[in-house]
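WARN no homologs supplied; continuing
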Amino acid sequence: PIPGGNVMEALDFVNVTDSDLRILFVIYLVSLFVPGYVHPMPYVFGAQGSAKSSFSRVLRRLVDPSKTEVLIFPKDRQELAQHLSHYYLSFYDNLHSISQDMSDVLCQAITGGGFSKRRLWTDSEDVIFSLKSNVGLNGISLISDNPDLLDRRILFQLERIEEENRKDESELALAFEAARPRILGAIFDAVAGALVLYPSIELTSKFRMADFTKWGAAIAETIGIGQDNFIAAYRRNVNSQNDEVIEGDMIATLIV
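OK structure emitted
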């Protein structure tokens, strides 16, 4: 890491153009470097060609580098629990739907919980997975209207990149690797500043993800976005989720 960088440089490598989403992306990115509390789940959706997978890879490369940068969503609860126990940030790519059962496991992993399965070749011994993981999902459309999962996520709707604006992936990767030490240095500077400010942050209103809201306000003040701008952007994102659920449901749309 190189000190003195600007965390906003991370936005050069993701297709996030909306002003609110740019604020939320940077705040969420920095917040992941503060462990010990519940982080929201980014849900990235948009048309084909909107660079959803690239969004996921940039976060993983900065926060939790791994050869498996994006994951295929597993078929059963045990495999999902095993995934979530192995990574600090698990990002699942190209989802179409999630069952209520699997959605419940994701909620449990985000807030913290345990999951057990029978140890192989035994009748009564258990393998215990202690889950408290950061999770991200992406897909073309919204894939779950589970209220508990809705309350825990940030929606990132990406626009399709026009052909003339597309960049060569290898060149983008080289540019990112050159920028990564600067971005990480800026993140660490932001975390250090937020740790100082956090005890003095006072919120007039809190969301379901109260700890994230307070840490986000401290980070926003530290990096020059401002607490009020972050809170306003986060509130608008939370309020938009009901609209997105209605638009994605034929019966709800007809009722409206």
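DSSP finds nine helices and six strands in the chain.
OK
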